[in-house]
Design goal:
Length: about 180
């Protein structure tokens, strides 16, 4: 038999759980104004994305990726795909990626690379969606991302687009990592 204390504790916990669930259901979702603005903007065209990214290094906290203006010279990728190279380091862990990138007329930029570190190799594709309205560019990861302002009009110091730096700032460190792996 169950004790009276056990029954009361279960009843109290059930009431708390039900009240919590009801409160969670009744809370309205916060309105994401940036998402609303991005949805009202137009997808960027492939040529605009190529102009924005080609020949630039996208600096990251832990490394960077170079999006070449040159076509990828691999026989197994479409002619309009361009060469992509990247590296990343977190503490003593490092990895580098080599592959290609492409842009589409529905605002998508995709980076496809074979990532390598001292222990493994893995292929990965990461895509970003871009929309533009009145000179403001919105960006998000295509899977699981949230819209944010990539570039304001006029530009702001905190814009992610300011991390796109002209030239190849990746290949030298990538070559060093490759020799370390051997």
């Amino acid at each position: 038999m169950f004790s009276i204390r056990f029954i009361f504790i279960n009843a109290a916990l059930s009431a708390l759980l039900l009240a919590g669930s009801a409160a969670a259901v009744s809370k309205p979702k916060p309105v994401d104004e940036t998402a609303k603005l991005a949805e009202a903007a137009s997808p960027m065209k492939a040529d605009a994305l190529v102009k924005l990214y080609a020949g630039r290094t996208w600096k990251w906290k832990t490394g960077g990726g170079f999006l070449s203006a040159e076509a990828s010279n691999s026989w197994f990728v479409p002619a309009d795909w361009k060469r992509f190279a990247a590296w990343s380091r977190q503490g003593r862990r490092w990895s580098y990626g080599e592959g290609s990138w492409f842009a589409t007329n529905d605002g998508k930029l995709c980076l496809h690379a074979l990532w390598t570190d001292e222990d493994w190799r893995s292929s990965a594709r990461t895509c970003f969606l871009h929309r533009e309205k009145d000179g403001v560019i919105y960006q998000k990861r295509s899977v699981g991302g949230r819209w944010y302002v990539f570039s304001h009009n006029p530009a702001e110091v905190t814009d992610e687009a300011r991390k796109l730096i002209a030239g190849d700032r990746v290949s030298q460190e990538l070559a060093r990592m490759k020799t370390t792996r051997r």
